[in-house]
Design a protein that fits this description.
The complex is a heterotrimer of chains A (472), B (199) and C (215).
Chain A lengths: L2 H6 L1 H27 L3 H13 L5 E3 L12 E9 L5 E7 L7 E9 L6 E8 L16 H9 L27 H23 L24 E5 L2 E7 L10 E6 L5 E8 L21 H8 L20 H16 L1 H6 L13 E5 L2 E7 L10 E6 L5 E8 L21 H8 L20 H16 L1 H9 L4
Antiparallel strand pairs in A: 1-2, 2-3, 3-4, 4-5, 6-7, 7-8, 8-9, 10-11, 11-12, 12-13
Chain B lengths: L1 H13 L10 H6 L4 H33 L5 H23 L1 H7 L3 H4 L3 H10 L4 H4 L7 H29 L11 H15 L6
Helix pairs in contact in B: 1-9, 3-4, 3-7, 3-9, 4-5, 7-9, 9-10
Chain C lengths: L2 H12 L10 H6 L4 H24 L9 H23 L1 H7 L10 H11 L4 H31 L1 E2 L2 E2 L11 H42 L1
Antiparallel strand pairs in C: 1-2
Helix pairs in contact in C: 1-7, 3-4, 3-6, 3-7, 4-5, 4-6, 6-7, 7-8
């Protein structure tokens, strides 16, 4: 058909109509989209309003310059509610069941605005916490308790206390570890906001404060072993920008000098490794050498141009290595006396006497819910084995004491036996079903006894030295 | 492999389109009187669902979202589905007239079937609860999901038609003949399927 | 009978889309466990249905017969998209509770059905009334069922907890089917009874008239 016919045919009319309708629709919707769009910002405000309980507008606070990584929690964001001056915090509490627990905490400042006056809603979104599988066991009334029980500087407890009784606030939720993570988050939020509102720095307890020269050492990734008077350290330093952290193996002998030192991971800025000094040159040096260069506080003074030993072109790298060496030497005595395997031992209530090479302990363990603390008498001989062991106070949960193993079976065992079952760190792994010695139905009771025995053997040298070195 | 099984189980059992999500109800009630028609409808719906997902998912993910016109999805999707159905009808009529006679009459009805648009909308949304952590949605999983959703739909259709055929042999009071008794039957089928939600 | 009255009664009762024609069942069953969602869905469908009827009736002389279905679908899809944007911005609670069923309104048999069966043959005013009537019929039906399911299945009403006793089964799809089936049965029975009563009355009247004439 001709072109003219085509323009008159129904097919053409259909096409045109359809296109017109589509066009009009498209334009209409695009206009509407521009007018009615809900931006991500708005969606986020809605989320915050949902947490707060009513419609509010918030502004994010700048916390980039503050210390947000606390020992019990990491502060992610702080939002100030413009309507009434409260704050909504997004906090990750540490040590939950499956890692960190992401929580939203509402903090209400005091009337003077300089400290925390109260805690509001605490919400833990399930969607953001896939590792907290027991989260739904915690009823909403428990969350309300945070606000109801708030006192200044409160530290929210969780779980059982020493006597196994309901001494703390949030027992029996059925999700103890998750509750620990959430409590850590709320505590962290309160600590942080107290500092934030008052303008001061956060005063945190330094768990490593007994160690000398630890400011540039990553204590969590540093470990040591003791053998025959020589302490072998595996040190990880902190960074000294632009240098990255260093890892070193350092041996310190009883004369408090470096007997060996080696870099296992070089954190130098790229290209500077060859500029470093030869770290072996530090062998034989004592603490005085290092403090002579860097001062008694081993601080980084920046300009070491006067000292050829350190100022080789890779000053910061050298500094970190020297710092690690100073740390190793300075803590030799302290670490020598440090007890190992103390996590489940109540050191204040534990005594040891040495006589004729035999150390007799009276050990009190900590509670390990639902089991409460055990008291044992343990004798360790010079061959570092258990020569005698007896339970003086059985902390088993009621009815389980008969399920325990016969503790006398531990006589004659050495440390390798215990670490063979529980690992070198004697940590509680929960599932001991493979090991008949411990898994008798009263696993935690057995574990505490074994832990006490390992503690006794491992610290034999230390207690012997203490006793022979006179009273402290 | 785990994702494969998760999707199959979800699509057919725990998130079954008829008994759990109540999506493809119109044909479910209308066409399930005889087993043969139920089967035909089920197969036709499955085919359309897979084709629709194969076309709509890439267009949405790779064309509409980058261009920022994702708010036009409803129009685009329904247009694509309607065109697909139209083309399918023409193709089937050409290729196999007998097949067309068997099931071609249902094809126009499928355009307005909630299940087809439903599955297209579903796969562009948040599927992490079914896929699990760390598995990204891609066209393969989408097509798989729609395939098994369709099969689940067919399964329930067949169950329903079987039961309704049996019901024809019994006299029921006038008030509940037809739809009401069908509903009650469907109720029991749903209850049976809730067993699977414990997986 | 006044034609508007007829249209209204048809849409509301005698041709009630949910109970008599069993159309648009997907959102009905899907949202039945919450009275709030049911009511919201009903009102949304009411608005969209009325607007779609008006538009299609306005355009009925312009759109050629061959492309009418695609055009209707595009118009309805536009309205649904607009409704979705509107709800997301201004009534986010309803938007959340409707979920995927909001998008599925575009394939709701009621809207397309009324457009095809009524709006393209009648005037704008008639189409408006028809849309309103059918929409109200639908809304009333699913809201009633939603109230029943939520009350007996969850002990609450529109989100407010009223009683502790609940039969959880009613909150599941199984219960939805059951309630729907029972409601259809009851409704049809009542309508039948009314119709029968009317017929009896008409018969009685005509018999009386016959007798009068004979006399």
């Amino acid at each position: 058909m001709t072109a003219k016919d085509f323009f008159k045919s129904t097919a053409f009319k259909c096409l045109v109509t359809l296109l017109c309708v589509l066009l009009v629709s498209g334009i209409f919707l695009t206009i509407m989209h521009g007018l009615l769009e809900v931006t991500d910002e708005e969606k986020f405000q809605r989320v915050l309003s949902g947490i707060y309980g009513k419609q509010v507008t918030t502004t994010e606070q700048d916390i980039s310059k503050k210390n947000t990584n606390l020992s019990n929690a990491v502060i992610n964001n702080v939002y100030k509610v413009e309507d009434d001056g409260n704050y909504i915090l997004n906090v990750s509490g540490k040590n939950g069941y499956g890692g960190n627990v992401l929580c939203w905490v509402v903090i209400m400042p005091n009337s003077d605005g300089k400290s925390v006056g109260g805690v509001g809603n605490v919400k833990v979104p399930i969607a953001d916490n896939p590792g907290e599988s027991f989260l739904n066991q915690i009823s909403s009334s428990v969350f309300d308790k945070f606000g109801q029980d708030f006192k200044n500087d409160i530290v929210y407890e969780y779980g059982y206390d020493e006597n196994g009784s309901n001494g703390s606030m949030y027992v029996n939720t059925g999700a103890s570890y998750t509750m620990r993570g959430i409590s850590n988050a709320v505590n962290g939020a309160i600590t942080f906001m107290n500092a934030f509102l008052s303008g001061e720095d956060i005063k945190e307890d330094d768990p490593w404060e007994d160690f000398a020269f630890h400011e540039f050492i990553n204590m969590e990734q540093t470990s040591w072993t003791k053998a025959d008077g020589v302490i072998t350290y595996t040190v990880t330093t902190k960074p000294c920008a632009p240098a990255d952290p260093f890892k070193l193996e350092i041996k310190v002998g009883a004369d408090k000098t470096i007997t060996d030192i080696a870099i296992t991971k070089n954190g130098s800025t790229e290209g500077y490794e060859t500029d470093m000094f030869n770290v072996k040159s530090l062998v034989g040096k004592d603490l005085a050498y290092f403090t002579g260069i860097c001062g008694d506080d081993m601080a980084y003074i920046g300009d070491y141009s006067g000292n050829a030993d350190i100022s080789t072109g890779a000053t910061r790298s050298n500094y970190l290595c020297m710092y690690a060496a100073a740390f190793a030497i300075a803590n030799y005595d302290y670490i020598s006396n440090l007890k190992v395997y103390t996590e489940y031992i109540n050191l204040d209530d534990t005594t040891a006497q040495a006589a004729d090479g035999v150390v007799t302990y009276s050990v009190t363990t900590k509670a390990f819910s639902p089991t409460v603390s055990f008291k044992l008498e343990i004798k360790v001989g010079a061959d570092k084995t258990i020569t005698d062991i007896a339970i003086t106070k059985n902390g088993s949960t009621e009815g389980y004491d008969s399920d325990m193993f016969n503790v006398k079976s531990l006589v004659g065992k050495d440390l390798a036996y215990f670490t063979g079952i529980c690992g070198d760190d004697m940590a509680y792994i929960g599932d001991y079903s493979g090991n008949a010695d411990i898994s008798t139905g009263a696993t935690r009771s057995n574990y505490l006894c074994m832990y006490a025995a390992a503690f006794a053997i491992a610290n034999y040298d230390s207690y012997l030295a203490q006793a022979n070195g006179g009273n402290e | 492999m785990a994702t494969f099984i998760a999707i199959v189980l979800a699509a057919v059992l725990t998130n079954n389109f008829i008994t759990v999500k109540t999506y493809g109800i119109c044909p479910f009630l209308g066409v399930s009187k005889k087993s043969s028609s139920a089967l035909g409808m089920g197969v036709a719906v499955t085919v359309v669902m897979v084709l629709a997902t194969l076309v709509t998912y890439p267009i949405y993910t790779y064309v509409m979202v980058p261009l920022g016109i994702d708010f036009l999805e409803i129009i685009f999707f329904i247009f694509i589905i309607a065109s697909l159905v139209q083309m399918l009808e023409v193709v089937i009529r050409k290729i196999s007239p007998s097949l067309y006679n068997a099931m071609g009459v249902y094809l126009p009805l499928i355009t307005t079937n909630c299940a087809v648009l439903g599955v297209a909308e579903l796969v562009i949304g948040d599927m992490t609860s079914i896929l699990g952590e760390g598995v990204a949605m891609n066209i393969g999983w989408a097509a798989l999901y729609s395939l098994f959703a369709g099969l689940g739909f067919t399964l329930v259709m067949l169950i329903m038609s079987g039961m309704r055929e049996k019901l024809n042999y019994y006299k029921t009071p006038k008030a509940i003949t037809g739809f009401p008794i069908a509903m009650v039957t469907a109720c029991f089928i749903c209850m049976a399927f809730t067993v699977f939600s414990y997986i | 009978m006044n034609k508007y009255k007829k249209i209204t009664l048809d849409g509301l009762i005698y041709q009630n889309p949910t109970f008599m024609l069993v159309l648009g069942t997907c959102p009905t069953l899907g949202l039945i466990s919450s009275a709030f969602s049911s009511l919201g869905m009903g009102l949304t469908v009411l608005v969209i249905l009325t607007l779609s009827n008006i538009l299609i009736s306005l355009l009925r002389k312009i759109i050629p017969n061959e492309v009418r279905i695609p055009c209707y679908i595009v118009i309805i899809a536009t309205l649904v998209t607009f409704a979705r944007m509107f709800l997301e911005k201004f009534v986010p609670d309803l938007y959340e509770s409707l979920g995927g069923f909001l998008a599925l309104i575009v394939v709701n048999c009621i809207i397309l059905g009324r457009a095809e069966a009524f709006a393209n043959k009648h005037t704008v005013l008639e189409s408006t009334v028809d849309g309103l009537a059918n929409g109200l019929g639908f809304t009333a039906a699913i809201t009633v069922m939603g109230i029943i399911c939520e009350f007996f299945g969850n002990g609450s009403l529109f989100g407010f907890k009223i009683m502790e006793f609940k039969m959880s089964m009613l909150a599941t799809p199984a219960g939805a089917f059951l309630v729907y089936g029972i409601c259809i049965a009851v409704f049809v029975y009542i309508i039948d009874a009314i119709e029968r009563a009317k017929r009896v009355k008409v018969n009685k009247l005509s018999r009386e008239n016959l007798l009068k004439e004979a006399a």
